[in-house]
Design goal:
The protein is α/β, with parallel strands linked by helices. The protein has 23 helices and 26 strands. It binds beta-D-glucopyranose. Beta-D-glucopyranose (BGC) binds next to loops.
Length: about 750
């Protein structure tokens, strides 16, 4: 009797869990009567109040609001602020909205919480290197809880721009070059920030940005023009946004860039036809910072009024910082240039999200619990784990790593060894430099009390001076091993931080050479926010660890990896070039008529550098070894709407437990539109004990096998498909199947 009851309970629970994971995410069930409430409110609003909801204004850098905000909010003329934060300050302003304005519509507080609010997690590019979306979901969820505690209810994240050009500083904010990996991280981050119901305590509204193709800026120069086929747009740049919408994201941000001659903050094709028409997105779109006003610089319009008209009619709902909707709305309406329906629809979308967010029910933050919810020991522990899982071991000749904790002496060298700023990366929220555990501290925390740890900076990240080299060299000479920390300063990555060179800046490469020349075993740890060009290091230094900008706990996590408490399992989410002249270089390129493998002169390559990358997409080593073999397919032939499963056996052939990331790529060998030489269509990070074997299985169906044809229809075409599995985009075993 008991067992049947238990079985019944398990059945109900499984049905519930099944429903939970298979139901598309919708907020209608959790926020009842939203549409009716929106319409009731809309009916009471004056035009000025409506336009007020479409406006977002910036606060002070300190997190304070500005005196003007008080006045506007009291009159019902401001819908949202950005950068105003902290429970006390947000409550102060919110009280005016909720208690003193005519319609009592709460203000929506936004802030850039990109990879942490106060506890800073690894930069998003680093987290993508974990190939573990569940990890990104966890860190986003912790970031959401800290954000919520501070009164902020909306983050301008995730940044889901595909970036194939490491010169672009904002490559640091996204998940790298691949649409499939990018979509997986977009989905995970939205779920982390919002959960399945973003009105829940500790959850915040997310914003997928920057819609769209911002990452394709020509020359890698920030804010620059983009020009591409609709196929590329749909296949490469759209998928992470689509995944974010599938995961229920409430808002999108329109971008700064021009796209095929129509700036994305006034582009009816992307903002209305695709977003609202095809994808049925019912949340709202906020422009990027002054992007509406910038339509004049783009040369799309000649004046403020036309800029407002173009952006509103194209589908931007909320204007960030510039005020052209408010200044020109009444005239545009009077002259019939913008319809009442367009304005009402924008207001409706914003109010809908405010209701779904539960802002009307819970407009205030809890000042008493704020401090206790932020930078907790548990959050720091999660940051440490995330940083460890994000690191990529690039080279490890003769098992130079891991180091022994009982080593006699260790020289910790380099401008980033004891730097508290760089590990936080760009957009480090409310993170404090003082909170950062540097690598030097992490190493000191880790080694045995007998180990002598000596530190020498050597040089700055930037600048010409080598005055510190002598001390650094002597420090290395007196130690058993030298670990050199080089990379980029915080200000060298992120927005408006494009670089024309990917070399280590300043004298850092010379410092590495000087240390290597001592003959002491040398290890290089990179702390940076984009792929660097480090050919000399790769050729000459026995061990190289890509630690990225790892956040608040970076130093402890680095020590975990250097000393083997964590076995690195990260993989590159972006191709590392040999020289900047190879850029753009990405794995999922087309083949050309003269692919570079051929041995004649007249094929697609360079005279002065190999055409291959320094490290391919998906690459990363471990302290153990894996063997991937025995590729099996459930069918050798399928129909165009059919599917098959593909699996391989993975064995840990080494002596330590470790993580392998099994990656699945396909190639559609001949099609009516030429297809990439490889496309990632599946991946799985698994942990195996020494000697352990596991079979890893993937399913391939129309969603993975199709593309946009010449008529812009998504099709799966008959013919041969290659399927390739392995531990990076080059090291693969393959088989073929046919689509009939
Ligand atoms: C950035 C956005 C950011 C916004 C608000 C802009 O300069 O492009 O990504 O969300 O500022 O801070």
């Amino acid at each position: 009797m008991k067992t049947t009851r238990l079985a019944f309970q398990i059945l109900i629970l499984s049905l519930f869990l099944f429903a939970l994971v298979t139901t598309p995410i919708s907020h209608s069930s959790t926020a009842p009567n939203v549409e009716a409430r929106v319409n009731a409110l809309l009916a009471k609003m004056t035009l000025a109040e409506k336009l007020g909801q479409l406006q977002q204004l910036d606060g002070e850098g300190t997190g304070d609001f500005r005196p003007e905000h008080v006045d506007l909010i009291r009159k019902g003329l401001l819908g949202s602020t950005l950068n105003v934060r902290g429970a006390k300050k947000t409550n102060q302003l919110q009280r005016i909205a909720v208690e003193e304005s005519r319609l009592k519509i709460p203000n929506l507080f936004g802030y850039d919480v990109i990879h942490g609010y106060r506890t800073i997690f690894p930069i998003p590019l680093a987290e993508a290197s974990s190939w573990d979306p569940a990890l990104a979901e966890r860190t986003a969820s912790i970031a959401a809880a800290e954000t919520y505690a501070s009164g902020v209810r909306w983050t301008f994240a995730p940044m889901v721009d595909i970036a194939r050009d490491p010169r672009w500083g904002r490559i640091t904010e996204g998940a790298g070059e691949d649409p499939f990996l990018g979509a997986a991280f977009a989905r995970a981050r939205v779920l982390g920030f919002q959960g399945r119901d973003y009105s829940a305590q500790g959850k915040v509204l997310a914003c997928a940005k920057h819609w769209v193709a911002y990452g394709a800026a020509e020359g890698g120069r920030d804010y620059n023009t983009t020009d591409m086929s609709e196929q590329t747009l749909r296949e490469i740049y759209f998928p992470p946004f689509h995944a974010a919408i599938d995961a229920g994201v409430g808002t999108l941000m329109s971008a700064f860039n021009d796209l095929n001659g129509v700036p994305t903050s006034a582009n009816p094709f992307t903002l209305t036809k695709v977003l609202r028409g095809e994808w049925k997105f019912d949340g709202f779109v906020v422009s990027d910072y002054t992007a509406v006003k910038e339509l004049i610089n783009h040369g799309l319009v000649a004046n403020d009024r036309d800029a407002a008209q173009a952006a509103l009619n194209a589908g931007v709902d909320m204007e960030m910082v510039s005020r052209l909707f408010n200044q020109n709305g009444p005239d545009l309406l009077k002259d019939g240039k913008v319809s009442q329906a367009t304005i009402d629809e924008a207001v409706r979308r914003i109010l809908r999200i405010k209701f779904r967010l539960g802002l009307f029910e819970h407009p205030y933050a809890d000042e008493a619990t704020e401090a206790g919810s932020i930078l907790t020991a548990a959050n720091r522990a999660a940051a440490r784990e995330a940083a460890g899982r994000s690191m990529v071991l690039l080279k490890n000749q003769n098992d130079a790593l891991p180091l022994n904790k009982n080593i006699g002496s260790i020289a910790v060298i380099g401008p980033l060894a004891d730097d508290r700023r760089a590990p936080l990366g760009w957009w480090s929220g409310d993170g404090h430099d003082d909170d950062t555990v540097t690598a030097l501290t992490g190493i000191r925390n880790k080694v045995s009390p007998q180990t002598k740890v000596s530190y020498a900076k050597g040089c700055e990240v930037l600048g010409d001076s080598s005055a510190g080299f002598e001390e650094a060299v002597n420090t290395a000479r007196q130690s058993d091993v030298a670990v050199v920390f080089v990379g980029e300063a915080k200000e060298m990555v992120g927005e408006a931080a494009s670089r024309s060179s990917l070399d280590l800046p300043g004298r850092q490469m010379d410092l590495v050479k000087a240390i290597q020349a001592t003959g002491k075993p040398t290890i290089v740890v990179l702390i940076n926010g984009r792929p660097p060009t480090i050919a000399w290091i790769v050729d000459n230094v026995p061990a190289v660890l890509e630690a990225w900008m790892g956040g608040t706990e970076a130093g402890n996590a680095i020590a975990d990896v250097l000393f083997g408490d964590v076995n690195p399992g990260g993989r590159l989410p972006v191709t590392f070039p040999r020289t900047v002249g190879q850029v753009p270089i990405y794995y999922n390129h087309l083949n050309t008529g003269r692919p570079p493998e051929a041995s004649s002169r007249y094929n697609s390559k360079y005279l002065d550098v190999a055409w291959t990358p320094q490290f391919p997409f998906g690459f990363g080593l471990s302290y153990t070894q894996f063997k991937i073999s025995n590729l099996q397919m459930s069918a050798a032939e399928i129909t165009s709407n059919g599917s098959l499963t593909v699996s391989v056996e993975v064995m840990n052939t080494g002596k330590r437990a470790g993580d392998e990331v099994v990656q699945l790529y396909i190639r559609d060998v001949a099609a009516s539109m030429t297809r990439p030489v490889k496309e990632l269509k599946g991946f799985k990070r698994i942990t195996l004990k020494p000697g352990e074997t596991q079979r890893v299985e993937f399913t391939l169906g129309p969603e993975q096998l199709g593309f946009y044809n010449r008529d812009m229809r998504y099709v799966v075409e008959p013919g041969e498909f290659k399927v390739m599995l392995g531990s990076n985009s080059e090291d693969l075993i393959e088989k073929s199947f046919q689509v009939r």
